[in-house]
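Hi F.,

I've been meaning to write this up properly since the lab meeting, where we talked about keeping a consistent format for the predictions we share between groups. The idea is simple: the sequence comes first, exactly as it goes in, then the structure tokens exactly as they come out, then a line or two of notes. No screenshots and no reformatting. I'm using this chain as the first example so we have something concrete to point to.
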Amino acid sequence: MRPSVIALLILGLVLGGWSFAVQGPLPLDLAITRQLQALIPVQSAWIEWLLSTAGWPLIVVSALVVAVFAASLANLRGAAGALIGIALAMAAERGLRMLIFVPRPDPALIQVAKASVSSGLPSTFAIFYGAAAAALVLASSGKRGPEAQIVRWGAVALLVAGCVGRVAAGGHWTSQVIASAALGALASFAAMYLVRVVR
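Output, unedited:
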């Protein structure tokens, strides 16, 4: 098993399990959120726009864009792996939401752009983009051309920007988005292995 897979598994299980056990912010969550909110306005329009790309109906368009880039980099197997990974990640997101509840950030502690009573773990955005970014990183693995570099780093940049935005908007704690992104990435690792893009 690849060290990166083991690291993602540990990250997802430790942060996710700890967050579930504590039912609140983990150490550093509060400090990180306050620092980000000092830099990024809570009601930033770009955060809401980026969030919408992982929500219905734009999530379908986003998944198809990921599949097109994966196909360009790793043929039809890459596209199939990307779509299967995203489907696995979103199935895990639905299943976890039925099984567990972890509170979102409390407006009494930080600024919250949009209050919600739904579970903060998993983060729909982070799990989707974790799967999408991992699929594109794996599809571009071993390739050095400009397309591979742009797709690889563009996918990672969107994941990081979106997760930072979700935390800055008070939608999730940092630990929640990291655990969710790790779970999404694991789903793509499994799918890419299944279709033999990853050996």
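Notes:
The radius of gyration is 16 Å.
The chain has one domain: 3-20+31-195.

If this format works for you, I'll send the rest the same way.

G.
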